[in-house]
Design a protein that fits this description.
The protein is α+β, with helices and mostly antiparallel strands. 52% of the residues lie in helices and 20% in strands. The protein contains 16 helices and 21 strands. The two termini are 90 Å apart. It binds adenosine-5'-triphosphate and magnesium ion. Adenosine-5'-triphosphate binds next to helix 14 and helix 16.
Length: 661
């Protein structure tokens, strides 16, 4: 659970962040691992190189050390075999010996050059004119020389022996311990013995008899010849940031007696002691010790090896050390270069990553925003195709998909629109059909009733009218009944008209169709009407198209329709006006249209729908059958009759008759 949430959060990050974080994680992990192992490897390589070098340096130091010892042995052996010296010994010529050997001692800077007799007793100390006959038989070098051997070795010289050679030697050897933090504790606080490179050779005359022993040596305490020579030969006096890169030391036991390691004051650090670990390893266990060590002020890569006396006992240490700092700096420089290059590579990688992810993410972003737009109904967006890789192909497919969607949508819209139009058309057709059915229904039922009524009423009406006229003919016009009888005759005549109209309306005879010129039908009616009183104030304008095709109609019925319409128009213009009669051919609808346009009273909106109802009339003497009959006739011809009107502006009645072949 604890791991899942951050992981889910990571997965919800933007694609670029995910890419960069993953790469960074891998790089950081790899970087840290290589840094750790690289540092270790580098450390090991550099330090094993340094250790190999310091081991080599120690061997060189031993060469210098042993060379010095050999020099002393050579001096001693050479002089012990000199005839003049042997002669002087034989003759007990102390003066000659002193002069001669004293010169040798000075010439070769020996601290000691002493002669014993064949018993090991001192017969000449070149350091002191006074001859003391002390016994040196216990000295292992002397005792071995007395047996005829020439020997050389490092040797610890006790204080009383040093004093015999002179006070200055005892003083040189005397050293107070300087407290050293890591040194092993010692009960003493000073050293008064000396450490000497010493050689002894027997004086054997021509007869082969032992005359004595010549021994000499160099006191190593505060003698810096060997250590400085090591430094000069091995390290050539190199310095690093003002410090000696290489140092050498001779220890007497664990005490620095000859060194070029400097203390904080810049003086040779004699009197300080070796660390506890080195003491243990080298002095107690007799092993070489090669490692880094903190020497006086600085860290060194060091090598220590025991110095042994002629009996193989450990009496001191020879040490060389290289300043660690140059190696540390070298390591740091390598690490810094390595780290710098790594950082540079990471930055470079991130830049490359940024551009590579851009080529993936930008088209994807484009697709996301395009998808959003599409979801909002905009089907125009296009995704830019930069490259022909997988993303490019995806973008291409996406664009194709959008294009198809757009086409499908356009088709759908087109279908929607035509469908709407079709529905409208069909609704209109249905409405017309319904109107027609209603009208037909009304007409049919009315026709039946009218036929019955007309049949029953017509005969009585006729006899009323005949008898009324007969009475009227017989009485004078000033007769008191005359006016009443005239009214009866008029009203009966009106009733007769209604009955005739009803009979006409009810007569649903099929039309007798014949090819007819519509313009001619209009002209004939006009001739009859022009003489009528109601047309005297009316201007008639004919706008008849002379090129009308002949049309198949029942001439008499159509004549009746036109008659009705024109009479209505004249009745709508009681104070006069203009009647336009227009005939035209509509090629589109394949019909002839005849318009009757008047400038009369017009029809209120609420009456428009009732115009064609039987008996609808606004006139006192009208029957209200004129338009109902006309409608029936036009419908019998599969034609149409429409009306448009504005109150007090006028009305337009349009009849369209289809052309049938
Ligand atoms: N050109 C017109 N201008 C104004 N109103 C008209 C016009 N034509 C018809 N009308 C109106 O339509 C009504 C019905 O007409 P219709 O011809 O059916 O009957 P009518 O003229 O009243 O009677 P009849 O035709 O028997 O004389 C009329 O009463 C009139 O109100
Ligand atoms: Mg009428």
């Amino acid at each position: 659970m604890t791991f899942k949430k951050p992981f889910e959060k990571f997965l919800s990050l933007p694609l670029r962040a995910k890419f960069i974080l993953s790469f960074l994680a891998v790089i950081c992990f790899g970087g840290i691992i290589s840094l750790i192992f690289g540092t270790r490897l580098e450390h090991r390589t550099i330090f094993s190189l340094a250790q190999a070098k310091v081991r080599h340096d120690l061997a060189a130091a031993w060469m210098v050390y042993n060379e010095k010892l050999n020099d002393i042995r050579d001096i001693v052996r050479l002089n012990s075999s000199r005839e003049s010296i042997q002669k002087a010994v034989k003759h007990n010529d102390a003066e000659t010996l002193q002069r001669y050997l004293g010169r040798v001692r000075e010439e070769f800077s020996l601290d000691t050059l002493t002669l014993t007799d064949s018993q090991g007793r001192v017969i000449l100390r070149t350091n002191q004119l006074k001859i003391g006959k002390d016994d040196q038989l216990r000295d292992p070098l002397v005792s071995r020389a007395l047996k005829g051997e020439t020997v050389a070795s490092t040797q610890i010289i006790p204080r009383e022996e040093l004093l015999k050679e002179g006070k200055d030697q005892a003083q040189r050897a005397y050293l107070k311990f300087i407290p050293t933090p890591k040194a092993a504790p010692r009960p003493e606080n000073h050293e008064d013995r000396g450490m000497m490179l010493k050689a002894a050779a027997p004086l054997i005359d021509e007869d082969g008899s032992l005359l004595g022993v010549l021994y000499g040596g160099i006191l190593l305490n505060k003698n810096y010849e060997i250590v400085d020579r090591v430094k000069e030969i091995v390290y050539k006096g190199e310095k690093y940031k003002g410090k000696e890169t290489g140092t050498a030391t001779i220890f007497q036991w664990d005490l620095r007696i000859s060194t070029n390691v400097k203390n904080a004051e810049g003086e040779r650090a004699i009197g300080t002691r070796v660390s506890k670990e080195v003491n243990q390893a080298v002095l107690k266990e007799g092993k070489p010790w090669i490692d880094r060590a903190f020497v006086v002020n600085d860290w060194y890569i060091t090598a220590y090896e025991p110095i042994k006396n002629i009996d193989g006992e450990i009496i001191g240490i020879l040490y060389v050390g290289m300043l660690e700092k140059p190696y540390i700096d070298l390591r740091n420089n390598v690490m810094m270069t390595f780290t710098g290059m790594a950082i540079l590579c990471v930055v470079l990688l991130l830049v490359i990553l940024f551009f590579i992810t851009s080529t993936i993410i930008n088209p994807l972003k484009g697709m996301v925003s395009a998808t959003k737009k599409i979801a909002q109904g905009n089907l125009n967006p296009k995704v830019e195709i930069s490259f022909q890789d997988e993303i490019g192909q995806l973008a291409q497919s996406f664009n194709q998909m959008t294009e198809n969607l757009k086409k499908a949508n356009e088709k759908l819209i087109h279908w929607g629109k035509t469908l709407e139009k079709r529905v409208e058309e069909r609704t209109e057709e249905l409405r017309e059909m319904q109107d027609y059915l209603v009208q037909s229904e009304k007409l049919a039922s009315l026709g039946k009733m009218a036929a019955g009524v007309a049949h029953e009423i017509n005969n009585p009406l006729t006899s009323i009218l005949i008898n009324t006229h007969l009475v009227l003919e017989k009485i004078e016009k000033n007769h008191s009944f005359y006016e009443n009888l005239s009214l009866i005759a008029d009203e009966t005549s009106r009733c007769s008209n209604i009955v005739t109209g009803l009979l006409e309306f009810s007569r649903q005879n099929p039309p007798q169709l014949a090819f007819t010129d519509i313009n001619e039908v209009i002209n004939r009616i006009l001739k009859l009407l022009e003489n009528q009183a109601s047309f005297q104030n009316i201007t008639i304008k004919k706008e008849l198209n002379p090129d009308l095709p002949q049309i198949k109609i029942d001439k008499d019925k159509i004549k009746q329709v036109f008659w009705n319409l024109m009479i209505n128009a004249s009745e709508a213009m009681p104070k006069g006006g203009t009647l336009i009669i227009r005939s035209q051919f509509s090629a589109d609808k394949k019909c002839i249209e005849i318009e009757f346009i008047d400038t009369g009273l017009g029809i209120p909106k609420e009456n428009i729908n009732k115009l064609f109802d039987p008996f609808f009339t606004t006139k006192g003497s009208g029957t209200g059958l004129g338009l109902a009959v006309s409608y029936g006739i036009i419908k019998q011809h599969q034609g149409n009759i429409e009306v448009k009107s504005e109150v007090s502006q006028g009305s337009v009645f349009t009849i369209s008759l289809p052309i049938k072949v």
